[in-house]
Design goal:
- It is found in: Cell membrane.
- The protein contains 20 helices and twelve strands.
- The protein is an alpha/beta fold.
- It folds into two domains: 310 residues, Up-down Bundle (ABC transporter transmembrane region fold); 172 residues, P-loop containing nucleotide triphosphate hydrolases (Rossmann fold), CATH 3.40.50.
- Bound molecules: adenosine-5'-triphosphate and magnesium ion (MG).
Length: 577
Amino acid sequence: MTKLFKYLKPYIWSIIAVFFLTIIQVGVNLELPGYMARIIDEGIMENQTDIIFSVGFIMLSISLAGAVCIVLAGYLAARIATGFAMVVREKVFDKVHDFSLVEFNRFSTSSLITRSTNDIQQIQTIVFMMLRIMLVAPLTAAGAIFQAYRTAPSMTWIMGLAVFVIIGVVVLLWSIVMPKFKLLQKLIDRLNLVTRENLSGLRVIRAFNAEKYEEKKFNQANLDLVDLNLFLNRLLALIQPLMTLISSFAMIMVIWVGARLIGDGSFLVGDMIAFMQYLTLVLFGFMMMSMIFIMLPRAMVSGGRVADVLASEPAIKEPLKSCSFKPGAPAIEFRDVTFAYPEAEYPVLKNITFIAESGKTTALIGSTGSGKSTLLHLITRFYDVSFGHVLIEGVDVRQLKFTDLYGRLGYVPQKGVLFSGTIGSNIKYGAPQADDYRAHAAASVAQASEFIDKTKEGLEASIAQGGTNVSGGQKQRLSIARALVKKPDIFLFDDSFSALDFRTDVALRQALKTETAQATVLIVAQRINTVMNADKIIVLDKGKISGIGKHLDLLKNCAVYKEIALSQLSKEELYKY
Ligand SMILES: Nc1ncnc2c1ncn2[C@@H]1O[C@H](COP(=O)(O)OP(=O)(O)OP(=O)(O)O)[C@@H](O)[C@H]1O
Ligand SMILES: [Mg+2]
């Protein structure tokens, strides 16, 4: 939590101003009871109306000054707290952008959402409270104790006793509350997760008639949170009455002891009233401090959670300097690459070595789960290899600046991802400077023109969040168009033709051939049709390469390839080429 305080730096002058205003405010509060005592002892007791008026006027004016200070300090503190929260939120957002999939898996998306919303809100609240109370409370309490002692030294022990009891109560509550707050934020994470899953999986939930089950899951998460919240709030609700009880007892004792002293003639009525006001101030100060101590644990937990995000270094780092590409080197080369997912026991890719020549089409085929997508993710640096090297034009991808690396790549993910906006904004995502003509050309190659033309607005047709208003196949085609507009040197298609019907698949691959004649293409596919024309086919089986070659060679020499091929096409079709 303290690590976050460095973001308060820009507000240092405002903070100093708040402190000064606070000191004035406390000073005013401490002065008032003294004047009150004078009004009573000199004005009322001795019937001097002019003293009542003149001292009353002074009291009014300094109260007014105090009120102005309170308003100003409150305004400044609110500005500091919200500004601080904004900066932290920005930092978290930036940090999360740099995260690799490793960090996403570690934190989980729902937790990252809680951390950047609810947790930061908690921190904002505590910063505001600290600015307003942290200084006011102890200053008021200390000042009031001093003034009370000056007014009536013989009664300060009552004050001491009351303070002692209050501290005892606060420590007790604190020890109960503190561990629960950690749990509370975890439960909010959980509720977030269930809600997110429910919202994004709504169709599946309906289709499987799983509403009851999901409802139960949601209710459980919700109830857990409610129970804990109730428990905490009941406990915190105890504070107010307990404090009132303690202060009432203290007052009764002051009146009881004070009345006897006044009877003896060693004490003035005004002084007793002033003492009672100081006592109220002391108790008020301690009450405020106890509130902070109760709020602090939650904010500390939140602060820790946010600081965790900010402190975690992305596993995938950009090098400081880019190496320059080696002309003539193959576009993509894997050198004895082995890769295991973090926390996984066994590697999913083992000793992968191959070359994808520049300007050629290389295809990657293998059964589901054989590691094809994983292999592409190593080129795009979503993950880094465990052993070995992945080279782009002769340079290890880990030695390339992101702009150099991603400038070369046109990646079409297995699961089409679109952003809310328009068809045009999605196609031009990787090349914002592209004009409509280029966007249309790319769409035409990607076989997306037909459905784009069908919409009234064309490129301006809107895309809903997550691309839910287009079909799976349309999403894939738009993703392909998005990669084409970039005109990259290397295309990576991860099973990008799977959601297309055969006719479109053929048309698309033919159009691609002319469009990508100069480019290196790496196609991942499960369909033999898609790969059989490739210059080179790599067969992946359970994370290992079981064959590299052309279609006919592989049919002869690679049992895995032959098995896949025969399961999809007849012998005649296979040997046609
Ligand atoms: N984030 C991950 N963490 C741990 N293991 C993973 C992760 N992603 C994939 N795997 C595992 O890695 C293996 C290879 O997955 P990959 O996605 O590369 O397969 P694929 O060949 O692309 O399959 P498909 O054809 O179905 O897309 C699988 O066994 C999978 O369980
Ligand atoms: Mg895959």
